[in-house]
Amino acid sequence: MAKIQAQPFRLALCQLAPSTANKQENIATAQRAVKAAAASTPKPDLIVLPEIWNSPYAVPSFREYAEPIPAVGGKDEGEGETIKAMREMAREAGVWLIGGSIPEIEASTDSIYNTATVYDPHGNIVAKHRKVHLFNINIPGKQVFEESQTLTAGSSLTTFTAPFGKIGVGICYDIRFPEMAMVAARQGCIAMIYPSAFNVTTGPMHWTLLQRARAVDNQMYVSMCSPSRSPTASYQAWGHSMVVNPLGEVLCEADEHEAILYADIDPSALATVRQNIPVTNQRRFDVYPDVAK
Ligand SMILES: NC(=O)CCC(=O)C(=O)O
């Protein structure tokens, strides 16, 4: 288990209005939310946006709205307007930004990804996560979705290190796969943050349960940031953006409407929980070596 090096920080989740068909309008909505979050007191250190916020969350839309995204540390030649706007949001606000996710096009392979980017307060891209587990489910009569019709899955885990600590990033359905959060915790992450968009079928079943489970399993903070719900959208997002502490307690939760949520993250809470209930030191990888590989 890697050592934790972190400081207390303030997290803000922007539960944006559902995306419309107008990309510029969606960008303006995100700009307003980031500005409002950054203007709050005390000022947040890290702001988070939801999953696929510049495009409708719909399989046929991903290619139409996709943009090229540079590699980590890459310059801005050829990057899309949403990436330029997010660099500017982080720079103007002087904050770290987990810019939710947007559809990305990789020109060399013509593949489309569901990709989250992270910016430092200078507008540099410090991390890029391509959704690893594509959301393909079929609950007849309720929720059917098949991201793999147009999306390609990413193939790596993602973390970034800020002055306030190391953070793991996943996207929505990724939270159902506990290995990702476990590896991040073992690498010294204090939080797993997932830009997300559950729906009104799976949201009430599993949204809170999964965040509390990942938090308790790994004794770390866990947070999901969703869009708000629109009665007219084809995909009804669950909303309920949330932050859970390392004991598995819900620190804050939105309802289904537009909102900005704030939470104070205290890394010493990880140490306290890990000392009181020392499962992190009691793992028996000698008994289940496959997991440790
Ligand atoms: N956008 C997603 O990955 C949705 C995941 C979801 O709703 C779930 O139940 O898992």
Automatic annotation (TrEMBL):
Q: What is one term from the GO cellular component aspect held by the record?
A: mitochondrion
SUPFAM superfamilies, from UniProt? Carbon-nitrogen hydrolase
Q: Which GO terms describe its molecular function?
A: omega-amidase activity
Query: Pfam families in the record, alphabetically?
Result: CN_hydrolase
UniProt GO BP:
asparagine metabolic process; glutamine metabolic process; oxaloacetate metabolic process
Keywords, comma-separated and alphabetical: Hydrolase
The family line of this record is: Belongs to the carbon-nitrogen hydrolase superfamily. NIT1/NIT2 family.
How is this protein named in the record? Carbon-nitrogen hydrolase
